[in-house]
Each structure stands twice: as C-alpha cells, then as structure tokens.
Design a protein that fits this description.
heterodimer; A: 103 residues; mainly alpha; 3 helices; 0% strand; elongated; B: 671 residues; alpha+beta; 6-stranded antiparallel β-sheet; 4-stranded antiparallel β-sheet; 21 helices; 10 strands; 65% helix
C-alpha cells in the first residue's frame, strides 16, 4: 500500500514538471501577439465606457461642475472613439493573419 | 520508504519549478517568445501541484499521529480533537511557511489563469515575480524551517498544541490573516511587471483593483477574528492590546486601505503613480515582516533574531524586495510623473491625499512603536518599550481626523470644489454633525474622543445617506422608475462606489465600539458561595464551583447567576482549564453576556480547592458588540464592491448570445 502511494506521489510530481515543460516540447499553437493586443484595446474601451458612466453619476450628485464635466466627458469620449477605431483596425489585421498549423 | 518523505521531495521539485518560472517569465516576456512564456506560466500551476501535495502530506501526518515527523511531535498530541490536529499544521514556523506557500500557489494560479489573456504583456513578468516569492518560501522550507524532518525514533505521544490556540476563532484566524497577507503578492507582482514593461498608465491599476480588495477583505476579517479571539480567550477584558503580533497584522491593513483609495486617483486623474508603486511595495514588505514577526519572536528579544539564521534570511529578502522596487522605480521615473497637478486643496484629490497621509501616518506610528524596543536594544543594548498609552495618544487624534475625512472624501468635488458644491454637499451633513455633537455633550459625554466619534460618525452617516438619496433621485429621473428599483439599480450598477460607502458606515460602527472602551467598569472581588456583588447595572451571585472534564483538559467552573433589575436571571460559567499533555498549561476561559450596548465579562482568576473561595474579575464593557457588527458591515460592503462585474461583461455576454443565435440559425438553415 505504502509503495503504491509513493509511486502515485512520484507520478504526480513528474506530472507537475511535465505541465511546465510541455509548451517547450509541443510548441505553441496560439497566435498571441495580435489577439492579445486586441483584448487589451477592448478592455481599455470597456474601462472608458465605465468611466463615462461614473462621470455622469458624479455630475448628477454634484461632485463635478458643469464645466469640468463637459471637459472630462469630451476627453473620455475622444479616447473611447480612438480605442474603437484601433479595435476595428486590429480586428481586420487579425482576420487577415495566416493561421499557423498546430504542432 | 515512508510516504511522508515525499513531502520534502515535493518541496524540492516545487522550488526547482519556481526558479525555472522566475527566470523564464522574464526572458520569455522580454523576447516575446510564446513558448517560453507559456512554459513559465504553466510552471506556476506545476508549483501549485507540488505545494498542495506537500501540504496534504503534512496534514495527513497530523491526522494520523505520525510523531516520527518532528514537526507533528512538537505541535500535536493524540488527545487533541481531529479539527485541532488539522489546524495545528500552522501552529509553528514550518507549517506556517507551508500554509503561506499553499495560499500563494492558489493566488498565483488564479492570477495567472485570469490575466494571461487579459494582460498578455504583463502576465509573464508578474508570474516571474510570483515565482520568485514562491522560491523564497520554498527555499526557507527546504534549507531552514523544514516541516518534514524525520526523527530516528517514534515518540509515543506529541507535546500538543498550545491550549490558547485551541479555540475555533484561533483556528480560523491564521488562514484568514494569511489570505490577507499573501494576497498582496499579486498587486505587488503586477506593479513590478508594469515597471519592467514600462506600462505605468491605468492598465495595471484597473487590473489590480479586485486583487487589492480581496486581501484587504481577508485582512479585515483576520484582524476582526484575532481581536475577537483576544477578547474571549486572553481574559484581560480588552480586544486590542497593541501587542507586536497584533500590530504586525494591522499595519498592512492601514497601508492597504491607503492603496485601495489612492489607486482611484491614478485611475481617474493619472496622479500618484510613484506613490502607488511605493505603497504596494510597502504593504507587501509589511506582510513579509508580519509573517516573520509572528513566528520568530524577534520583538521579544534581539537575541531571538541572532539565535537562528531565519532572521537574516527574511531581512535579506525584505532588502531585496525594497531594493528592487526602488531601482525599478528609479529607472522608470520618467513614466511615473503625474499627468495632472493638484489644482486645489478643496478637492477630492486633496481629500484622498490627506486620507493617504493619515493612514500611512498611523501605519508608521504603529511600526515605530512596535519596533522601537528592538531598535533601542540593538543600538544601545537597553530595551525601551512603549506601551498602549503611546499608541493611543498618537493614533487617537489621527484616527479622528481620518473619521472626518471619511465623510468629506465621498462628497467633495473633483479638481476644485466651488462654493456652490461645498454648500450643496456639506450643508446637511454639517448640520447633523453639530446636532450630534451638542446632543452627545448634553447627554453627559465629556471625553473629547467619544464626543468626536459621535459627531463625526453622524457626519459620515449623513453624507452616505445623502449620496444614496441623490443617486437614487437621479436614477428615478433618468430611468423613470420608483425609489426602490432606482436604489437597487443605483447600487447594482455602481457596486464599487456604494460598497465603499457601506464600508465607511461599518468603520463608524467600529469607532463607536472602540470609543466604548473609555467607559469600562471593573471590579475584582474574592467571593464565597452565596456572596453577591454589584457591577454596573448587574447583580452577580456566586453559587460554588464544579469540576468538569474536556477531551484533553480538566476545567474548574465557577457558577454565577446574574440579574439585571427585574429581568430574567442568567447563568454565567467562567472556567480555568488544566491541560496535562500540553506543557501542563493552565488557561482562562471567560464567560461573556453580550448585549447590544454592553457586555458583562467574568474571569475566574483563581480558586482555592476545597473551600470554594474564588477570585473573580467582573467588567462591564460598553458597546463591544458594535465592533463585531461594524466589522460585519465592513465585510458586507467589501463583498458588494468585489461583486462588480469586470468592464465589458455585458458586451461579452451579448456577443456569446449572438454567436449562439447565429449557430442555431445556421443549423436550422442547414436542416
């Protein structure tokens, strides 16, 4: 029984090492660069939309003057538009990238 | 071969993988090589498997009374209930290190899993930092504090866990506190990754919002549990004694609170970038320091530090953490410049800055008071201690100023508060403050601290109610709904903001509970069976003692009957317990009658066997329950803030639904 447990434990530890070494042996199957940047841009856009919503709430509860709200709102909106434009550009380039064969 | 020997092997393999990931994460991230990056990220999961396996083996050792393991023999005994055997795993230095590593493995796995897609540029470097921290703790366990040392013989029984730790709150307190300590590794790792990559905008801050809130939540729970344990177990009647171990747990809480607030300023206004890097480094360093202080005993004596190599190892790691952070911040100082300047002292930014200065000031005062005896002994050879009066005198005024800012921060305007903003947002709360202050004095309160807590607490509560009302009203107008749905919608759509306000209300309640300590009534009396004594509104009748047996102790119990006026009498049974196997230790188990506005707290100090004469200390502790209620409200508020869905969740859900609809339409067309 003890020998079996020891053997199972050794296999588990070997599995842990295999888990880390596998990508070096098997190679990478994902296109990371463009899709990763796309995700970051989408996260940025989502964050700006959330910020616009919070800005509106700050204005409604009297924590932003009308002038400050107009200024910040315009800045955030222009950044959000810029992010959306970049997302469109990247999406087109990701779609046109050739797929790497697995393995 | 004993299966427990695999524990040591698991730690070695885990150490190898951690070092591998620490190097490969940086190299792969720098080169942009996806194979190296993927391997580094997966090394985090591999290390987690090794650490979890080692922890499982040690727990099995405790549950199976495997006294050939020296650590088990030192911290458990056959008579201990299984629950305490499982929790005795972290009863000493070696097991605590393993618990640290296990929790770090959990956090690292979750952080890498979540952020490897969301922050592909930062994730490999953050994984490398997390693996470096892991390598340090595994290195300590492999070379110094070894949990799997086997004895040449098997002792018939172990020494047992310290009886003071055999309490359910103490069983839950260390894991909670460690979840709080260790969790700060993730924001620290991402801060270092942001420095390495030069990505020092709001990205890493936004990504780390929840990763800062989670350890802050657990630190809050851990500190509450610890003070509750001290209150019910130590038998001196208080909940906070400014003990070095307590202080080590509360210091990161104050700096963590500063960080949770200051990241909002970076997020909204692009300010305090360098400050945030400094804060997260300080919080992480304090968690390392706290772990070390709790287990090493260095504060008790400078000689304890020199007696083992562990002190120098921890000091070296701390120096490396702080040195690396400073060097990276220096290298990236151009990118850490503020995007905006403070435009007015009457602004939200300024209120947050003062809030940060106060929180850091309180943290520093506690650090200084805690380490002063150690420093004085190291420098002059003479040990000069500072006690609770130092901490109370310094932190009393600072905490009151903080309470005031708790009310100002949420309602003052961004950039520059106009006269109109000040009038609109502060008129009602200031009126409430004045009324509450006058009422407190009229009702007989004379201590400045208590009056300030009542007045400023009412001010904070008024600002929160006003904020809720205004937000609800705005939503009622914009969504054309009634007040109920508007309030629910308001909180649901802005959970971080309103969760934070609920935390503020909890803090006010905790302040009220703490202020109650100014009005404690205490009586120490010698009693014979049939004696009666009055304390506060209570009459206490002593009826004699009983001797009772527990699973691994014998208890002498004093039978007290309590009456409050004409109310129903109530029994209280304070005990003294004798643990024969656990170094023959005697502990005091207090009896507490907890009511909304006061606790009656009874301690059996001593008894004379045969004559039934007992020495009892009776205390009436006002408002203590409000500390635990306030703590619960704080935890509730933090959970609301944490439940905020990540930005874009709605969009992603809509995209998934649309894709499903497209698929089903395509299938239907094909059919």
């Amino acid at each position: 029984m003890t020998a079996l447990l020891v053997l199972a434990g050794l296999w588990l530890l070997l599995g842990a090492v295999w888990l880390a070494a596998y990508p070096l042996i098997a190679g990478d199957r994902e296109r990371r660069g463009s899709t990763g940047q796309l995700r970051e841009l989408e996260a940025e856009k989502d964050r700006l939309v959330q910020e616009l919503h919070e800005l509106e709430l700050d204005r409604a509860t009297g924590k932003l003057s009308e002038e400050d709200w107009r200024d910040l709102d315009a800045r955030l909106k222009s950044r959000a538009v810029e992010a959306m434009r970049e997302i469109d550009d990247r999406s087109r380039s990701v779609a046109s990238e050739p797929r790497t064969p697995p393995g | 071969m004993s299966v427990y020997r695999l524990g040591e092997l698991a730690l070695w393999v885990g150490l190898g993988l951690a070092l591998y990931g620490a190097v490969l994460g940086h190299v792969g991230g720098k080169r942009g090589d996806p194979r190296l990056v993927e391997s580094a990220l997966r090394s985090v999961f591999g290390t987690a498997v090794c650490v979890a396996f080692a922890y499982l083996l040690l727990t099995l050792g405790f549950l199976n009374d495997e006294f050939q393991l020296a650590y088990v023999a030192d911290n458990a005994s056959r008579a201990m209930p299984p629950w305490y055997k499982a929790t005795a795993v972290w009863g000493g230095m070696e097991g605590s290190m393993l618990l640290w590593a296990l929790i770090l493995a959990g956090y690292s796995t979750a952080a890498v899993w979540i952020h490897r897609r969301r922050q592909p540029e930062l994730a490999p470097h953050a994984a490398a930092v997390l693996q470096t921290i892991m390598a340090f703790f595994l290195g300590v366990m492999v070379f110094s504090s070894r949990p799997f040392v086997m004895l040449d013989f098997t002792p018939p029984d172990g020494l047992g866990l310290n009886p003071l730790l055999q309490n359910r709150w103490m069983a839950a307190h260390p894991p909670s506190l460690y979840l709080g300590y260790v969790g700060w590794s993730v924001p620290f790792a991402f801060a270092m990754a942001a420095l390495v990559r030069g990505r020092l905008g709001a990205d890493w801050i936004v990504a780390m919002r929840k990763w800062a809130l989670v350890p802050f939540l657990f630190l809050t729970i851990g500190n509450l549990m610890g003070s509750h344990w001290a209150y019910i177990e130590l038998g001196w009647g208080g909940f906070w004694g400014w003990d070095p171990v307590e202080n080590s747990a509360i210091m990161p809480w104050f700096l963590g609170a500063a960080f949770v607030h200051s990241i909002m300023i970076q997020e909204k206004r692009g300010m305090l970038k360098m400050w945030n890097i400094g804060l997260v480094t300080a919080v992480f360093s304090l968690t390392i320091l706290g772990t070390f202080v709790t287990r090493s005993g260095i504060i008790e004596s400078v000689h304890a530090f020199a007696s083992t190599d562990i002190g120098f190892i921890f000091l070296g790691f701390l120096a490396a953490v702080v040195g690396t952070a400073i060097a990276l911040a220096w290298w990236r100082s151009d990118l850490l410049r503020s995007e905006n300047r403070l435009e007015s002292y009457a602004s939200r930014e300024s209120a947050f800055l003062f809030n940060n200065l106060l929180l850091v000031g309180i943290g520093f005062a506690i650090w200084w008071g805690t380490f002063f005896p150690f420093i004085s002994e190291a420098v002059t050879g003479e040990r000069i201690s500072v006690g609770p009066p130092f901490f109370n005198q310094v932190n009393g005024p600072l905490s009151i100023a903080l309470l005031l800012l708790l009310g100002i921060g949420p309602v003052i305007a961004w950039r520059k508060a106009s006269r109109r903003n000040l009038q609109r947002n502060f008129r009602i709360p200031l009126a409430v403050l004045a009324v509450a202050g006058v009422a407190a004095v009229a009702l007989g309160l004379r201590q400045w601290y208590a009056v300030s807590v009542v007045a400023f607490g009412a001010f904070v509560a008024a600002t929160v109610v006003q904020e809720l009302w205004r937000g609800t009203r705005a939503r009622m107008r914009s969504k054309e709904v009634g007040p109920g749905p508007a309030l629910v919608g308001l909180i649901g759509r802005n959970r971080r903001r309103y969760g934070g306000y609920i935390v503020h209300l909890g803090v006010v309640l905790v302040f009220a509970g703490v202020a109650g300590a100014l009005f404690v009534t205490e009586r120490a009396v010698r009693m014979r069976p049939g004696d009666e004594v009055d304390v506060g509104p209570f009459t206490v009748l002593y009826r004699g003692t009983d001797v009772e047996g527990g699973p691994n102790y014998t208890a002498t119990v004093a039978n007290l009957t309590i009456r409050d006026g004409d109310g129903e009498p109530r029994r209280m049974r304070p005990e003294r317990r004798f643990y024969p196997t656990a170094q023959e230790q005697v502990t005091t188990e207090v009896a507490i009658w907890s009511r909304l506005f006061e606790d009656l707290y009874a301690v059996l100090e001593s008894y004379q066997p045969g004559s039934d004469v007992v020495d009892v200390t009776l205390l009436v502790n006002p408002m203590v329950l409000w500390i635990w209620i306030g703590g619960g409200v704080m935890v509730f508020g933090m959970l609301i803030a944490l439940s905020t869905p990540p930005p874009g969740t709605r969009r992603r859900r809509a995209a998934v639904l649309e894709a499903r609809r497209d698929r089903s339409e395509t299938r239907a067309a094909g059919a």
